[in-house]
Specification:
The radius of gyration is 39 Å and the shape is elongated. Helix 21 runs antiparallel to helix 22. It has a domain of 125 residues: Alpha Horseshoe (Serine Threonine Protein Phosphatase 5, Tetratricopeptide repeat), CATH 1.25.40. The protein is an all-alpha fold. The protein has a two-stranded antiparallel ribbon. A two-stranded antiparallel ribbon has the order 3-4. The longest helix has 20 residues. It contains 37 helices and four strands. InterPro entries: Ankyrin_rpt, Ankyrin_rpt-contain_sf. Pfam families: Ank (PF00023), Ank_2 (PF12796). Keywords: ANK repeat, Repeat.
Length: 644
């Protein structure tokens, strides 16, 4: 008799429950009994071992016999198969223990645990307790809990939410199971899941009012927030579970909940939706705000109103329900009301999320062509970021000014300068490249504004004064590139990475007019021979490498401003050596013919290695002048040698 015939006979004996008491004897004579026990049978589109078959039929004595003949019972009970559950649904990767519980054969299940050392949660499926809750099997839940096979609080689903048993049941709205779990000691305020929430939060989120009531009666705290700062009441309101939200609201006496209620009301219309014609978000906001006003009145809890600001059209937040009723049909005014509410509540908390809707609203204003309102709103946003100690940036202003220039929209010189002066704010004085690059971009935009015919003399002088002020600050990038370096560098153009196509259409570098403005109005503070620490380049080195149309004119401008043509960078190159076009080389060669005696002397001192630093103090102009003539290159060679 071959193995398959023997296996078929064993299968039939197990299915029938070993009526003839022959299973034990048959297993004893098998040469490889473990192979037979672990064999997976293919029957009726199901894959099952003998132990799984016994579990499905509830043959507890048969299961004991099978376990007694295994040399590795732990391995045997782990083997999974595919079958159909008690409701006729296909179940994959199930163990014998799972099958016994599914069929309600709890004596057999206990045998598998006691004799077979079956692990309750040793499965690729969810833990048995979670599966039982999912299938509303209170009998299985009772078997697992009352025999101390599971930890109610620590047993969690394997899925992405990671809910524990009470949270899982609460999310499904299973009142009877929730009540049982609470009775058996489930912690109602246990924090779990990926969002560190509670069972009450799960019930509120899914709108299960009866479960919410059971949990609250059991002492669940409605004030606990998840990791996103959301209480059960907030979750209910955000997800449209208004009956649950109102029930929870009635349980709270904390005035902070009024703020949370108002934030939820704002969340219906902020951030702005794409469908501006849909009135339902505004209706929801109005209804909730009316409730908030009534609670404030009942608890005598007035608002602390901020001063009117230009960004919000000098509007102030409504103090009473009567005031609010006057604006309830004006969607634009309601939006400003929401912005005012959010700022009052979120600014003290220094939450960055306060500003994101302001930036989005600004974009909406631009779409309507209301550039000035957007600029004022974003200026206000800049100060909010600064107040909250978050990073600030001017790239959006550079973009909006470029957009205005591209569409031939006149730029108010006063408003432009108001933004330009943000470059001197404390948050903008950090040593970061994009801060000073935005400043150079604003100088370039200033050059275009100066071309406006209607500009008054006073307005022109104000722009010149601002340029002079930023030059006086002598700010540089981390690589010690000055405003002048950036104005003549093609890399400045390539480094534009915010709305790049729109900005590059208006601003280009190297830029002749920008360089001219810097040299003219910053002549007292601009050092034409300043070198960066990247390559030891002066502005003349950088622009001499360019093949852009304005490069030749910029070189002439720099030379006329006193830039030295014979300065050498780290690679021992003069601007002439760095030049890449014939026209540039010819221009620089003509200028080199008239090198001053002072420059020749400086080169001689460096060449002969005369120790001039003991004669002139390090920071003196003469010392610096000599340094530019080949010292940078010699220092670079020395440092490279030391590294080797």
């Amino acid at each position: 008799m071959n193995d398959l015939t023997v296996y078929d006979e064993l299968y039939a004996i197990v299915c029938q429950g070993d009526l003839s008491n022959q299973l034990d004897a048959r297993l004893k004579v098998l040469p490889d009994v473990d192979k037979a026990l672990e064999h997976v049978y293919q029957r009726d589109n199901q894959q099952r071992t003998l132990l799984i078959v016994a579990a499905l039929h509830g043959h507890e004595l048969v299961a004991r016999i099978l376990l007694s003949h295994s040399s590795n019972v732990r391995n045997l009970v782990k083997i999974t198969g595919n079958t159909y559950d008690i409701k006729g649904k296909r179940a994959l990767l199930v163990t014998a223990l799972w099958c016994a519980c599914d069929r309600g054969h709890y004596k057999l299940a206990q045998t598998l645990i006691d004799v077979g050392q079956a692990c309750i949660d040793d499965s690729s499926r969810n833990p048995l307790l979670i599966e039982a809750i999912n299938n509303e099997r209170l009998d299985t839940i009772q078997f697992l809990i009352e025999n101390d096979h599971v930890d109610i609080n620590e047993t969690t689903e394997y899925e992405y939410r990671k809910y524990n048993s009470l949270m899982f049941a609460a999310a499904l709205g299973q009142t009877q199971i929730v009540a049982y779990l609470v009775e058996k000691g489930a912690k109602v305020d246990y924090l779990g899941g990926v969002n560190s929430g509670t069972a009450l939060g799960c019930a509120a989120l899914h709108g299960h009012l009866e479960v919410v009531k059971i949990l609250c009666s059991a002492g669940a705290c409605p004030n606990i927030k998840n990791r996103h700062g959301e209480t059960p009441m907030i979750l209910a309101y955000k997800n449209g579970q208004f009956d649950v939200a109102e029930y929870l609201l009635d349980l709270t006496q904390n005035d902070l909940y009024i703020d949370e209620l108002e934030l939820i009301a704002c969340s219906f219309i902020i951030p702005p939706r794409n469908n501006d014609n849909d009135p339902s978000p505004f209706v929801k906001m109005v209804n909730l705000m009316r409730k908030s006003f009534k609670i404030r009145e009942a608890r005598y809890c007035p608002k602390i109103i901020m001063k009117p600001v230009t960004a919000y059209n000098f509007e102030t937040e409504c103090q009473t329900l009567k005031e609010f009723d006057k604006i309830q049909d004006d969607h634009d005014r309601l939006f400003i009301e929401a912005l005012l509410i959010r700022e009052r509540i979120l600014l003290p908390k220094k939450l960055k999320g306060l500003c994101e809707p302001l930036l989005m609203f600004g974009e909406k204003l631009i779409e309507k062509g209301d550039y000035e309102s957007c600029i004022r709103l974003w200026e206000h946003t800049f100060y909010l970021y600064q107040l909250m100690n978050h990073e600030t940036s001017l790239h959006r202003f550079v973009w909006i000014f470029c957009k205005m220039l591209a569409t031939h929209v006149s730029i108010s010189p006063q408003l432009f300068l108001q933004i330009c002066r943000l470059t001197s704010e404390p948050s903008q004085k950090q040593n970061a490249s994009h801060y000073i690059k935005n400043t150079v971009c604003l100088v370039t935009i200033a050059a275009k504004i100066l071309d406006q015919e209607k500009l008054t003399k006073a307005e022109r002088l104000s722009i010149y004064e601002w340029i002079s002020d930023i030059c006086r600050e002598k700010r540089t990038t981390p690589y010690r590139q000055t405003l002048l370096h950036l104005s003549v560098n093609e890399q400045t153009h390539l480094d534009i990475n915010y709305r790049a196509s729109e900005i590059r259409q208006i601003l280009s570098f190297p830029n002749l007019v920008t360089t001219q403005l810097l040299l003219t109005h910053g002549s007292r503070w601009i050092n034409c021979d300043a070198v960066d620490i990247l390559n030891g380049d002066t502005a003349l080195h950088i622009v001499s490498q360019s093949n852009k149309p304005e490069a030749l004119s910029i070189v002439k401008l720099l030379l006329n401003a006193g830039a030295h043509i014979d300065c050498r960078n780290k690679h021992n190159k003069t601007p002439f050596d760095s030049a890449k076009t014939i026209e540039m080389k010819n221009l620089l060669q003509r200028q080199q013919a008239s090198v001053s005696l002072k420059c020749l002397c400086a080169c001689y001192i460096v060449e002969k290695q005369i120790n001039y630093e003991f004669i002139w103090r390090k920071d003196t102009k003469l010392n610096t002048f000599i340094y530019l003539h080949d010292c940078i290159a010699k220092q670079n060679i020395t440092s490279l040698d030391s590294k080797e």
